Amino acid sequence: MDVPHGTAIDYDALHALLDPGPSPDHDHDHDPAPARAPDPGSAPGAGPPSADRTVARDLAVAALRAVAEGRWDLSAIRHPLGFLCLPVLRDGPKGVCVHLFDGADEEGGDGADGGDGADGGGGAGVRRGRVPLVHAHSWSLISLVLHGRVTNRSVRVVDDPVAPTHRVYEVRSRADGTDEVRPTARLVRGEPDGFERSVGGDVYVVRPGEFHATVVSGGRPAATLVLGETLPGRSDMSLGPLSGEGHRSVREWCDPGETVVAVRAALRRIDGPDD
Questions:
Q1: pTM for this structure?
Q2: Could you please report the per-residue DSSP string of 139-170?
Q3: Distance of alpha carbon 216 from alpha carbon 238, whole angstroms
């Protein structure tokens, strides 16, 4: 896709730059102090080379500058999980977005709290007090942190009809922005299963069907470049209340002025020191 700033936004090219390859078996990071992942060399599974990540970052920045300078009329979407989503590319099952987090998420608890409800948007839940809710995508996700610190909390979901903590909800998102949230018969228990903290320049991966919650660290804003490819035969899911009440929601588009303000703020942080 050629956009007005003259930069080709191509999913497959970005995927080749950011795909970390097979992940080696390792324990989850339980270190409470955020730390940058070691710079990957040629070790298998270590992640994409720094030069490739830099190229991908520069493509994301070029797209953001086009929006900030009014050369690309692209509006952000208010995602039910609490961030702004810039849909940079939609190509069938493949997509590229930039996610802008305002830092209002609460990073606390055990990471398995599904809250009081379920909402749409790729398995998102109703946000009570901006506590991140546990969800699972129908698509593979590769994310490059552009600035800030992002924590991805994994949750192990175990079927437990006797003493469940949550019900699994299926989320069906339509092209018009409507999210239909439907309860399933599956009752489960959610258990914390470690976390991974990433800072600017890091890449993290969330596999289809993996329950997780993503928050920004330290109450500070963050931005990520996100690649996703929907896989056939899968559904977006979230953890929600046992009561099994479904509902429908509609995503909101930001006005152009609000989008430009948010993008310019993100660019200042990307260009500045990333503490």
A1: 0.81
A2: EEEEEEEEESEEEEEEEEEEE-SSS-SEEEEE
A3: 20
Q: Residue 133 contacts by C-beta under 8 Å, 6 or more apart in sequence?
A: 81, 113, 114, 115, 118, 119, 124, 125, 126, 127, 213, 238, 239
Report whether pLDDT(245) > 50: yes
The amino acid occupying position 264 is: R
The tokens of 216 are what? 């920004």
Determine the Cα–Cα distance for residues 196 and 202; give it in Å rounded to an integer.
11
d(CA 64, CA 87): 11
Angstrom distances, CA of residue 137 to CA of 35, 59, 74: 26, 25, 25
pLDDT at residue 120 in the model:
34
Query: Which CA distances in Å does 260 have to 64, 75, 79, 145, 187?
Result: 9, 8, 17, 20, 43
Identify the structural domains of the chain with CATH numbers, from first to last: 11-24+35-271 (2.60.120.10)
Report which residue type is found at 104.
A
Q: What's the pLDDT band for 270 if we cut at 50, 70, 90?
A: very high
Least trusted range by pLDDT, from 59-63, 123-127, 208-212: 123-127
Alpha carbon distances (Å) from 117 to 135, 157, 189, 191, 193: 12, 17, 15, 18, 22
Is the Cβ–Cβ distance between 138 and 249 less than 8 Å?
no
Instruction: Look at residues 142, 275, 158, 159 and name the one whose alpha carbon lies nearest to residue 217.
Output: 275
